[in-house]
C-alpha cells in the first residue's frame, strides 16, 4: 500500500515545514487555504505517487528481464562448455590412443563449440551496444550493393561446404542513409541464417531494391522452412527454433532480434514468410533517409 502524506496545519512556520518534510510529508499546506490551493497540492501528490509506482514497476521489470537474460545466457553457455570439457578429458585420458591424429574429430568438435560461444558473445556485445544507445552511429550516404557483395563473399566459405549457391539480385548501385556496420550486421545475420537452415545443395537469393521511400533487403532460402507457430516466435531474444531438423544447428538465438532492433533504429520493419520443407524469405524495410543530427550519431 502506497501512502502519501500532506501536512495541513494552522501553525505555519519554516521550522514546522522542515520538520514535516523530514518526517516523511510530501508537502505542507498552511491554513487558511483556498480550494484551488488544496486541489493543486493533491494533484501534485497524486502525480508523484503515480510516478513512484511507475518507477517501481520499471525497476521490477528490469530485474525480471535481467534475471531471465542471465538464466538463458548461463544455459546457452553451459552446454558448449560442458562439451569442450568432456572432449578435453577424453584427450587427457588418451581415450583414442597415443596417436594425435586419432583426436582430430574431437578437436574439430571442440572448435565448433568454441565458435558457437564466440558468436554468442559477439552477438551479446552487438545487442548491448544497440540497446544501451552507446554505439556511435555514423550515418552517411552509403552504397548497399558492395556491402552485400562483401557479406556474400564472407559467407561463401560456409555455403561451399554444403554445396549452397548464393546469388545477388541488385542494381549496380543502391544508396541510402545508414551506418555501414549496422547494415553489415543485418546482411551477415540474414545470409548466415539462410545458409545454416538451408538444405544440402540449396540456394540463397539476396535481393536489394528500392522505391521512392524505402530500401528492401530480401533474403530467400530453399531450406527447412517453419510452421506458422514457429514464425510467431522469431525476432525475440534467445529464441531458436528447436525441432528434429535444427537440433544440430548451432546459434545464439540473438541474430534476428538484433536485425529487428537495427531496423527499428531506422524506423524500419522486418517480416518473414515461410513454408515448412520449402524455405523462408526475410524482408527488411528501411527508409531511404535518416536524421543525421548530433543526437542521432552519439
TrEMBL record:
Q: What is this protein called?
A: histidine kinase
Q: Which InterPro entries match?
A: CheY-like_superfamily, HATPase_C_sf, HATPase_dom, His_kinase_dom, HisK_dim/P_dom, HisK_dim/P_sf, Sig_transdc_His_kin-like_C, Sig_transdc_resp-reg_receiver
Q: Which reaction does it catalyse?
A: ATP + protein L-histidine = ADP + protein N-phospho-L-histidine
The residue ranges of the Histidine kinase domain are 72-290
* EC number, UniProt record: 2.7.13.3
Cellular component per GO? Answer: plasma membrane
- The answer to whether UniProt assigns keyword Nuclease to this entry is no
Please state every residue range assigned to the domain named Response regulatory.
1-46
In which compartments does the protein localize? Cell membrane
A GO term, aspect molecular function: ATP binding
- Keywords associated with the record: ATP-binding, Cell membrane, Kinase, Membrane, Nucleotide-binding, Phosphoprotein, Transferase, Two-component regulatory system
Report the enzyme's class at the first EC level. Answer: transferase
Chief place of localization: membrane
Q: Does the keyword Methyltransferase apply?
A: no
Q: Name one Pfam family in it.
A: HisKA
Amino acid at each position: 500500500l502506497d501512502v502519501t502524506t500532506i501536512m495541513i496545519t494552522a501553525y505555519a512556520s519554516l521550522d514546522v515545514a522542515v520538520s514535516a518534510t523530514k518526517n516523511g510529508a510530501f508537502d505542507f499546506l498552511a491554513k487558511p487555504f483556498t480550494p484551488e490551493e488544496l486541489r493543486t497540492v493533491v494533484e501534485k501528490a497524486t502525480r508523484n505517487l503515480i510516478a513512484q509506482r511507475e518507477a517501481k514497476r520499471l525497476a521490477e521489470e528490469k530485474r525480471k528481464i535481467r534475471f531471465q537474460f542471465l538464466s538463458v545466457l548461463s544455459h546457452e553457455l553451459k552446454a558448449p562448455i560442458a562439451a569442450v570439457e568432456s572432449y578435453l578429458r577424453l584427450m587427457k585420458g588418451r581415450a583414442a590412443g597415443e596417436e594425435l591424429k586419432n583426436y582430430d574429430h574431437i578437436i574439430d568438435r571442440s572448435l565448433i563449440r568454441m565458435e558457437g560461444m564466440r558468436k554468442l558473445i559477439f552477438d551479446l556485445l552487438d545487442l548491448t551496444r544497440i540497446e544501451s544507445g552507446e554505439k556511435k552511429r555514423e550515418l552517411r550516404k552509403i552504397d548497399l550493393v558492395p556491402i552485400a557483395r562483401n557479406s556474400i563473399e564472407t559467407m561463401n566459405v560456409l555455403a561451399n561446404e554444403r554445396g549452397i549457391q548464393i546469388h545477388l539480385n541488385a542494381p549496380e548501385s543502391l544508396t541510402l542513409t545508414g551506418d555501414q556496420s549496422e547494415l553489415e550486421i543485418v546482411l551477415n545475420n540474414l545470409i548466415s541464417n539462410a545458409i545454416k537452415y538451408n538444405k544440402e545443395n540449396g540456394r540463397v537469393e539476396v535481393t536489394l531494391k528500392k522505391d521512392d521511400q524505402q530500401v528492401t533487403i530480401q533474403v530467400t532460402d530453399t531450406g527447412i522452412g517453419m510452421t506458422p507457430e514457429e514464425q510467431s516466435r522469431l525476432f525475440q531474444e534467445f529464441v531458436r527454433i528447436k525441432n528434429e531438423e535444427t537440433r544440430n544447428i548451432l546459434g545464439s538465438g540473438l541474430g534476428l532480434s538484433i536485425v529487428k532492433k537495427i531496423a527499428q533504429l531506422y524506423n524500419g520493419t522486418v517480416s518473414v514468410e515461410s513454408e515448412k520443407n520449402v524455405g523462408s524469405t526475410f524482408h527488411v524495410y528501411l527508409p531511404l533517409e535518416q536524421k543525421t543530427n548530433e543526437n542521432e550519431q552519439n
